[in-house]
Amino acid sequence: MEELQDAIEDAQYVSAIASVDDGPRPVVPWEIPEEAELTKWKDGLLSRHAKEKGASPSLPTPFGFEWTLAHALGFFLFSAYLKESVGDYVEINFMEEVIRWKQSKGRLRAEKTGFIVVNYLAPLAESANAGDPPPVLAVVTPDAVASPPTADNEKNEHTEELKSISKIHPEVRPPKTEIKEYSLAREPTDFLPEVMQELRARNSGPIQNCIGVGGNILESILSKVDKLRNLPGFASTQNGTRRQSSVSMRSEVRNLSLVSSTLPENLFDEAELVVAENIRDKHWSGFQSSEQHTKLLNFLWFQDRTVVEEDFFVMRVLGRGGFGLVTACKKGTSGKLYAMKVMNKKRIKLKKAEKLTLSEQECLADVDSPFVVNLKYSFQSKTDVFLILDLMTGGDLSYHLSQKGCFPKDECLYYGARIMLGLQALHDRGYVYRDLKPENCLLGEDGRVKLTDLGLAVKITPDLHGAAGTRGYWAPEMLDRDENGKRKNYGRMVDWFSFGCCLAEFISGTSPFRSQIALDFGLKKGEKTKEKAIDCATREMHPELDGPKFDDIAADVCRKLLDKNEATRLGFNGCNEIMSHPYFCDLKWEDIISDRMQPPFIPLTDVNAASQSEIGTFAEDKAFHDTVLTEQDEAFYDKWNFTNRKAFAEEVIEFLIYERETGKPLLPIPQNPTCCCVIL
C-alpha cells in the first residue's frame, strides 16, 4: 500500500513540475482584509516610519509615490494602471527602460543605450508636411544593435537600421511594452522643490521629444553617447545611405562594451526625474482611487501577515536532512512550487545544533544571488521550523556525474562558472560555505545550477577553525594544527580548494582526494584508517592531473586551485582571478553574470531523486520522546519568521501577468474530492 501511495505522489509531483510552463495553478483564493484590519496595518506602517525617519531622513513615506514605485509590485500595478486605465504609456515605458539600463552592463548596456536614445530621446523634426502619415519609428531590439548584417535582416529596417536621430516626426510614439520581469522597481528619490525647479530650468528649450525631455538635459545625454552612436554596432541611416559595419562582430562587441563602460551611471537620471515628476502630477491621484491601488494594498497586507504551515500543500518527499525531511510543496494562493525543508526542534536540541540552524536561516535570508538557492519564507510551529526554498527539480551534480561518468567541457565550464559566482556571492556577504561538493550543487528544471545546503556556512571570523563539510573536499588548512596541537584558523580560501576538487571531478569523474590513489597514498604513509588516509592525502599528496581527460590548461587551473598554501592558491584575490584563467577564456562572462546564458544540458522532467522508501523517515526513539522543549528553547526561534518580499512580489506579479495575458481572472483550481488519481 505504501508503494502505491508513493507512486501516486510521484505521478502528482511529475505532473506539477511538467505543468509549470502552463502558468500559476492556485488552489486557494487570496485572503482580502477587512477594512479594520487594513487600517490597523496601514497605521502600523506609518507609526514605524515615523520612528525610523530620524535615523533615515530620506526614507520614503509609506503609500506615497516614491514608496510605491520602490516596490516591484507597486511599480507593476502603477504601470498597469497607466497602460490599461489611462492609456498613457510612453513615459512609464521610458522609466522602465532606464531601470533596465541601470541593471545592465557591458554590451547589453550599450544596446539599451541605443534603444532609449532612438525610441524616447530622439529630438523632434524641425518641420513636417501636413497630412503626411507619421513615419514608423525604428524599434531597436537588443539583438538588432550588435548583430552582423545577413541576407534576411538586411531587408528588415526595424532590426538592421536606426532612423536618423534628427528626422523623427513629432507625432511618433514608441510601441507600448509590458513589464515581463518580476523584480522591476525604482530607487526612491527626494523630490525637493528646489531640485525640481532647477531641473525644469535645465529642461526648458525648443527641442522636445515624445517624453518631453529637452534643453540642457537632452544635450548633455546626447553628447555623452556620441562616441557610442558612431560605432559600427550603433550604425544609422544618414542622408539615405546605409552605413554598415566594417569590423568583425568580435571587435564590434568589444567596442560597444568598452565605450558603454565609460558612460556615467547617472546618464539618464535627470531625464527620468523630469518624466517621473510629470507622471506624478498627471496620474498619481487617479491611481490612488483605482482598482490597481486597492489590489496593491491588499497584496501588501497579505505579504505582512504571518506565514503558517497551512499556506502550503505538501507533495513528494525529495530528501532527508539532519533534522527532518525535504519535500516539494505548493503555495496555495499563487500555485508556486517550492521545496520545504522541515527541521524538528527536538532533534535540533538533541544535537545541540540551534546555532547552526539559526546560522543557516540567516545566511539564506542574507544572500540574494541567482547562483545560490534562495530563501522565500521561514516560519515555525510548536514542533518544527520550516524553510521554504527554490525547488530544484533537476537533481544534483553528483547524480548526473554518476550517469555520465564525467562532464563534457561545456558543462564543466558552465557549472564551474556558476558555482564560483555562488561562492563569491557568499564571500561578499562575509560567509564561508565550507560544504562544497557535487551533492550540494542542484540543477533547476532549466539546467541552471545553484548552491544549496548552507547549514555549515558561517560568518568569517579571525578565530574560525575546525574541520567542517565532507572529508576529501576539506582544504588542508582545516586539518592543520599549530605547534601546540590546536587547530589553525582559516577563512574563505577553503572554499576555493573545495572548488578545485569539484572542478577536477567534473573533468575526470573522480574527486582527487576521494580516489583509490589518495587512499593508497595515506595508507603507505602509515595511516591506519580510511578517514585518516584521506586526510593525509589532502595535506600532502599532489594529484596527478594528466591523461586524456586533462589538457595542459585544465590541469593548470586545478593545480592552482588545489595549492596547499592558501596564500598562493588561485582565488586569493577573489573570483575575478579564477575567471581570468585561460581555462575560462571562451566563456561569455557577461551572459553568465546576468543569468542570460542558456544551460548546455536540460535535465529530464522526472523525479530526479531517490525513491521515497530509500529516503526513509526518522525514528522517534526514547531520547527523542524524553526531550522537552522549554521556553528558553523556544526563545532561540524568536526571529525565525521571515518573508522574502522580493519572492512574494515575484509570486504576485507572475500571477498578474498570467491574468493579463489570458484576459480573465485566475481562480483556484478545484481539488479532486476523491482519494484516487489516474497514473498515465
Automatic annotation (TrEMBL):
One of its GO terms (molecular function) is protein serine/threonine kinase activity. Residues 312-584 form the Protein kinase domain. ATP binds at residue 341. It holds the Pfam family Pkinase. The keyword Kinase applies. Keywords: ATP-binding, Kinase, Nucleotide-binding, Serine/threonine-protein kinase, Transferase. Residues 64-127 form the RGS domain. This is G protein-coupled receptor kinase. It comes from Stephanodiscus triporus.
